[in-house]
Each structure stands twice: as structure tokens, then as C-alpha cells.
Amino acid sequence: MGAYNIxxxxxxxxxxxxxxxxxxxxFLKKINTYDTTKGSSTLVKSNSPVFTETYNTxxxxxxxxxxxxxxxxxxxxxxxxxxxxxIMRACTMPAVNVHHTPLVxxxxxxxxxxVLANVAGKLTRTKELPTSNVAGIMIFAxxxxxxxxxxFTKKGYISAIKTVNILRGKTNNYTVALVPGVMTxxxxxxxxxxxxxxxxxxxxxxxxxxxxxxxxxxxxxxxxVPFVKxxxxxxxxx
Length: 238
What we know:
The protein is of the alpha+beta class. It contains 7 helices and 6 strands; from the N terminus they run H-H-H-H-H-H-E-E-E-E-E-E-H. The longest helix has 40 residues, at 185-224.
């Protein structure tokens, strides 16, 4: 839209050799069609690899075209400073807002099935510390996708641990039923030990995942670097 605006403002300067008003109108129609199209990029990627590949190809071409435009625009930096400034603004990538997948927990009393308010929650994938509301709803709003472990505590109830799998692009709903009772010293120790073991396991899995990515990246770099035969080493091969 930024590109359209700058071209529209200067249509008399760029017509007819560069762009015609009819082409500009067609471009606006495509922008509006794209802007009003609703959907999920995750669903497209998982359900329609062909669309995903088409999108990736188009974005590569767009990036290349933007770089070309910025180079050509240098000719106008002195003679048409306003036009040049407009092009530079249009070629600047906008900031991307990161949207996280929400996790919604419904907390109930295991004996009565009624909802529980004021239950304290923790989740290994976020620093949020929410409490359930009067409807027994607890929301973790800034959670990334993947496996996570949640804990739930409330005075007069046995603390609970629940492992959840958070799916990207969806509102993840889970229910937890807390058992009425007073935590004994043994239960407190077992709760802490179990949670520590789970957290350590999650950290180890994450570290292994990062290492695998790094190893793959290093291997790719090593594969892409061409071998150069040392000077004077005729006849030697690798």
C-alpha cells in the first residue's frame, strides 16, 4: 500500500513509460483483495504446501524488486528529494507484531465439579502468573507453541501438575480438577521433586533441539564452502 501511495501521488511523473493509471488501479484491486482475505498462515503451510511455496516464491521476488527500486531511486535523491523520501518510506518493512497462541484453563473442584476461583497458575513457557476468575477461567495469553507444564495451587486443595501441548494458531482449552485437601509434607516434597524433574527434562530437550539446529547449520556451511587446492599441490585430490 505504501508503494501504491507514492506512485499514485506521482502518477503524472511516471506515466506512461513506467506505469499507467489502469495498471495502478489494478494494483490497488490486488492490494484490497489481499487485505480482505482471511485465513491462517499455519493452516496454509500444513494443509496446502503448494500455496506456501507460491507465497515464498512471490516474497523472494518482491524482496528482489524492492532492492532494485531502492537502487534506482538513488538517481532522484538530489533532484527529487520528496519523491526519493517517499520511495524509501514505502520500501521500509513495517514492524511485525508477534501474536502468541493463548492457553485457556478451566479449573474445577473434583468433588463438586463446580468452578474454582483464585487458583494460582504457573506455566514453564511463560513468566505470567495468572489466577482463575470467578468463572474458574485462567488465561495464559503469551505462550509459544509446544509442550509445556502447568501447576495449579490453592489453599485447601492438593496442588496439581498438568502437561499440555500448545498448538499454534488455535485457542488451546484444557480443564483441571483440583482435589480438596491439605498438602502433607511428603506431598509437598514429591510435588517439588516431580516439577523439578519435568523442568529439567524440558530444558534438556530444548538444549538438544538447539544443538541439532546448530549442528545442521554448521554442516550446511561446511558443505557449501568449496575446497581450494593449495598452491603447488598438483595432483592431490580430496
